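# step 3/5: fold
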Amino acid sequence: MGGSLKSIARRAGVSISTVSRALAGKPGVSVAKRAQIQALADRYGVVPNPHASSLRTGRCQGLTLITDLRGTGISGLRSHALFGLARERFHEVRVQVRNDDEGLDECLRRAAAGHPLAVVVSAVRGAVAPETLARLRDQGSVVTGVDTVIPGCDAALIDRVPGMNQAARLLLLSGRRHVLFYSGVPLSHPDDRLRGILQAHASLDRKLSAADLVPVNGSTFRDGYEVTSELLKRRAVDALFCYNDEMAIGALKALQTAGVRVPDDVMVIGFDNLPIAEYLPVGLTTVAQPVEDIAAAAVELCEQRLATPDAAPRQQVFPTCLVIRQTAPITSHEQRNQVFAMPPTGGVAAE
């Protein structure tokens, strides 16, 4: 087998490791070169043995996905999309769930012990020791962040500003007088959602005050229900941005319980575009993240890094966009043009 691989490598003008990757169906080999190698392998009667290769090299045959089960619904959807695409391209996928007491550095060290071809970190954040990244590089494991930035690594990132800008403009242009925004951060330390809200106010020559923000410490259905129920007792409100779809659905339940009509009395906008948003009795207007595109980019970045390990780190940024449904409708073409008038400029988002 070894001699045959050398013959194939010599005739194809590539290394033996490239021949092994091509025959094992691993990434990092062009379509044309893979076809040439496969044709030569057929000619020489070479059949790869992935299990033997794994035992010999100590390297697994796939990708490790690091994720956090305590995240929001959209995090789970991203992880599911990543798993499906990674399994198609890398064949083996190991899902590593972050432990409660584990930081990102510990997660990566645990992943490195399995000697994967690639590691994708989905929305798990924290400091990483240079030694940990060096160990992964030395053993040939590539690392890609999804909605998180890891120094020196490729990343597929989400720009939450454009969609949030559109959502805030819709509420502000609707003629409502008491527009409130649920926020997990104060005005003095804005995240991307809040930056989008600020951008919308500035574009309409309005000023956002701290009184327009409703502080939230959680983002679940229950949090949305409880925060909205208390809000209705003490504040006038006729338009709500609810931080994410789960909170928005909880808010819709609280509004229904209080006899408040949506959108007649209160407009509601969520964030994430979870699948359930479209199928609620009153469809939820929300800001969509391109989940499938982000997952595909992350897997592709891993493949590109394996093919060109010395290239500069790459970042692909995916903008969000407002999806109009019944909880916050657009009532005219003029209003639609105004809502979507601002260019999708924001920043790299890894909240």
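# step 4/5: annotate
The first helix runs from residue 2 to 12.
# step 5/5: archive (pending)
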